Amino acid sequence: MPFLFGGMWFFPMFLMPIIFLFMFFTLHKKGFFTKCMNSMQENNNSKVKSNYYLEEDSSNLKALEIIKERYAKGDITKEEYKEMKEELSK
Question: Cα–Cα–Cα angle for 19, 20, 24, nearest 5°?
Fold first, then answer.
């Protein structure tokens, strides 16, 4: 009789990989892994985009300062100043 109960460890040894495979394929079918990868990529892209927009905003601020100086000196008219300012704000 001891040989019947001594082999009981075989059952969990084969059942656990089957459970893990079932969970993996179910999650894969539901798109869990692709959602995780997309969210990780979005986080990385958002950091890049935020730096890009910060650089773009700083260059626009510099351009606005130049336009203000030119308007103050009288190099450009009020209409030209407004047009240039609108173009930079786009």
Answer: 120
**Could you state, in order of their start, the residue ranges of all structural domains in the chain?**
45-90
What pLDDT does 80 receive?
92
The pair of three-digit structure tokens given for residue 73, joined into one six-digit string: 């000196």
User: What's the rounded Cα separation, in Å, for the pair 76 and 54?
Assistant: 28
Q: Given this model, what pLDDT does residue 56 score?
A: 55
Give CA–CA dist 61/55, Å, rounded. 10
Q: How far is CA 37 from its chain centroid? A: 10
What is the model's pLDDT at position 43?
Answer: 66
Compute, in degrees rounded to 10, the torsion defined by CA atoms 28, 31, 37, 40: -140
Alpha carbon 69 to its chain's center: 38
The pTM is what?
0.37
